[in-house]
Amino acid sequence: MSRTNTSKELTGEEISGTKTGLVSELGTLLKSNIRQYAMYITLVAIFIIFDILTNGIFLSSRNISNLILQTGYVAVLAIGMTMILVIRHIDLSVGFIAGFTGAVSALLMKNWGINEWVAILIVLCIGLAIGLYQGSLVAYVKVPAFVVTLAGMFIFRGMLLLVTQKTGSIIVDRKINNGYYSIANGFIPDKILSVPFGLKVHIMTVIVGLVAICLVIFLQMKARRNKRKYDFTVSSTPIFISGLILISIIIMAVVFLLSTYNGLPWTAVIVGVVLFIFNFILNKTALGRYIYGIGGNPEASELSGVNVKQVTMFVFASMSTLAALAGVMYTSRIGTAGPSAGVGFELDAIASAFIGGCAVTGGVGKVTNTIIGALVIMSLTSGFLLMGVDVAYQYIAKGIIFIIAVAFDVVTRRKRA
Amino acid sequence: MNEYILEMKDITKEFPGVKALDNVNFKVRRGEIHCLVGENGAGKSTLMKVLSGVYPHGSYKGDIILNGETQKFRHITDSENAGIGIIYQELALIPELSIYENVFFGHEIRNGITIDWNKTISEAAKVLSKVRLQANLSTQVKNLGVGTQQLVEIAKALSKNVQLLILDEPTAALNEDDSQNLLLLLKELKSQGVTCIMVSHKLKEVNAIADTITVLRDGATICSMDASSQEISEREIIKNMVGREIENIYPKRENVDIGDVCFQIDDWTVEDPEKGRVILENINLNVRKGEIVGLQGLMGAGRTEFALSVFGNVPHYRIKSGKLTLEGKAVSFASPRDAINAGVAYVSEDRKGSGLILIQDIKYNISLANLAKLTRGIAINENQEIVEANAFKDSINIKTPSVQQLVGNLSGGNQQKVQLAKWMYVHPKVLILDEPTRGIDVGAKYEIYTLMNQLVESGMSILMISSELSEILGMSDRLYVMSEGKIAGELSRAEASEEAVMILATKS
Which residue has the higher pLDDT, A33 or B494? Predict the structure, then answer.
């Protein structure tokens, strides 16, 4: 593994003489990640189009803040759905699990007077229990997930109705349960500071943003240094640095927008933590390898010593627990738990995961990209709402973008095969 | 009429970055059996795909002349209409449909808009008698053996009035008996005027049947040899295939040092609950340290079932009795994980179906069974993973630009090496190899045999399951022959001969 001519790192000095080297590196980078870039471009295009159509309201700090708050519960569901789709299953029940658990949490607080944090913990446990029940049917009894979760759709819709029918919609009292209310409406504690140009910014939010940027740069540098230590090819310095600058600019832009409104929403923090945990599991741990392995070839995984049943259980349990979390986030956002909560959530979650690049054949999918998928879907919701367009068009637009994304995915995958 | 039914002239087919075919010329005489041989990746399948229209006219350069007319197939149905029938390695039958439905599937005999079932059945009977298939025509195809299914495929092609029948590795999945039958059938079809192109790795069969042998290497025609009048030696064919002489197909082991019994299986009796019958009966078998033990048997003798039942019993058979002893200690494996942890590894016969994860890269596949070794705390050390994968890439010569290459993009031989690397990485005491060289080329075979020798020299024990008699005889220090779920006999290297093995294998 000594350095050879073909696999050495391209340093800045070597590049400067040969401009074509940089161009061709960019070219291969673009080519090998075309699927991912197409998604970013789609998101940016949607942002720009809506911003023009709404005369700049769409990209206002207030709307971006709202967009994040609205996307939260879908993003959480979509993260779980990504894992489900990777292992070649589907979960149709997540919408009504979210609706049901959200309603239970409201009921516990309102009618039973239980502390809001205890109530949240209880419904997360209910979510986990539902996941174990559905997962065991899929993994051990071998009932197709489509059937198990379709049954779940019926069951939890019924349970949601049971919970809400006596009292009607349960309104969450934001005075008593302020913590619960803050989950999807509140912002991190902050101080407003006047800065030049007559702007007022939330300083904590800016600090969090700067810390995030430092963390990203530190982690990227560390990974790169590690790779060098092992003598592996790394991307050339100019490309590496431009990548870091681009990420920093994006983070800073979002943070700046947020800081001029109300600061960083708690929802963003929650989604960030969930994303970090599952991204870590999927990419850095043996469990994550096994999840992708099962999606790629279940027989081969089993013969390689992977306990397919346990991994399937883990994925379904995670999904339903995340659905319960999404239920809490949605109920907090709306402020009431009604009988129609959860309708269609599973569709948004599945569409987000597919737009985010999950393969229809399983085995492929990244939670980080799924978040982008969720943003695409929820931008459509938010944008059409802002424009006051009939909800019917919203569905049609979502469907069209969804099918284009998957068709594009299928075609690019086939070309590479 | 033209002497040649088919002429392919100067065919060049390029894929991004690779020239799969480079000015290939290929001529087939009317009424002959023409064998196309070559290593994996030599371009045989690509050439046949060009011929059958899978790669449409315009995506390659050169001419296809069939019966004196230049053809421009845009689609596989075009070549079918022109009288070319192709039978792939993976059979394309519908398991739930009956024999006669399958024969006319896709070109149903119609009566207006409905299917004329009576005529279908009588026509199916006619064409099935041509392939000498005696079975109830309404049997579902899933209930037939692979050999019989192959016949149904051929009947299906004949029902379309083919003049040129192409068979891609037709005997790869067949046992010796079925293979013999198939070869006889091809000769019979030849006498009825059907021209055949057979792509094959099995040189013995090629020699037995071919009128002409064409060798492809690296996308180019190396030679076309007339085999109808004189016998062409296997060595000659191999020389042309690999471009050099392989002195000995089975490398000699330098220092044979066979130790104590390492892995022992006693009274192994297993029932398949789905079939409701005993599939393995009283198997007694042992492998010594540093020994290669062959396990031979006809298709259906229960060899793979035996390996799977021992290796953590993934198919969930009912193990009625039996004892496993590894290095003197009684062991039992409830899952492959248990077996791996104890030091037993199983290399699957079906590397694409149950061996490898094709959509993942090489390093991922190599480390999959032993991630614990790479895990510090809870995270996998991905850099170390690349280092270890690269070490395998170099030591066992996996031909790839990088270990980040997807396994699905590798040739069969290299995929097999990845499989071996994966199991070497768990450092097993006992390595069970199930058909280790199925469908891979001569050069890669030699490398795998050499590797097996190195492994046993380092003290590993190998149990090699194989259908290929010459391989079993060439590599084993000792061998067992299975027949109908029982051990029919054990032969030492000295006792083992093709005849002795076949007598045991066909014993019932």
Answer: B494
Q: Do B305 and B270 touch, CB atoms closer than 8 A?
A: yes
For residue A15, give the 3-state DSSP assignment: helix
**Can you give the pLDDT at residue B168?**
87
Q: Which residues pair with B63 in a beta bridge?
A: B9
Distance CA A332, CA A185 (A): 7
Identify which of B337, B378, B391 has the shortest CB distance to residue A307: B337
Determine the Cα–Cα distance for residues A147 and A93; give it in Å rounded to an integer. 10
Strand partners, A11: none
CB contact under 8 A, B378 and A226: no
Whether the per-residue pLDDT at A15 is higher than 50: the answer is: no
**Looking at the predicted structure, is the pLDDT value of residue A16 above 60?**
no
Instruction: Look at residues B228, B189, B183 and name the one whose alpha carbon lies nearest to residue B85.
Output: B189
Cβ contacts of B334 on chain A, cutoff 8 Å: none
The strand pairing partners of B271, in sequence order, are B278, B318
Please state, in angstroms and rounded to a whole number, the distance separating the CA atoms of residues B92 and B99. Answer: 13
Q: Confirm if B486 and B282 have CB atoms less than 8 A apart.
A: yes
Tell me: the pLDDT tens digits for A329-382?
999 999 999 899 999 999 999 999 999 989 988 999 999 999 999 999 999 999
A103, A163 contact by CB (below 8 A): yes
Domains and CATH numbers, chain B: 4-242 (3.40.50.300), 249-343+428-508 (3.40.50.300), 356-426 (no CATH)
B156 contacts B102 by C-beta, under 8 angstroms: yes
| Structural tokens at position A286 | 């043996």
pLDDT for the residue numbered A179: 92
Task: Give dist(CA A380, CA A265) in Å, integer.
Answer: 21
- For the stretch A262-302, pLDDT in tens is 899 999 999 999 999 999 999 999 999 999 999 999 999 99
CA distance B403 to chain A (A): 12
Any residues with CB less than 8 A from the CB of A241 and at least 6 apart, and which? none
The arrangement of strands across the sheet holding B292-297 comes to B344-347, B430-434, B461-466, B292-297, B478-483, B486-492
Which residues of chain B are under the pLDDT cut of 50? none
> Is residue A48 a contact partner of residue A73, using CB atoms and an 8 Å limit?
no
Task: Please give the distance of CA B473 from its chain centroid, rounded to a whole number.
Answer: 19
- Residue A3: per-residue pLDDT: 35
Set of chain A residues whose Cβ sits within 8 Å of the Cβ of B358: 296-297
Query: Would you call A198 helix, strand, or coil by DSSP?
Result: coil
At B114, which amino acid appears? T
For residue A302, give the nearest of B336, B353, B386 by CB distance.
B336
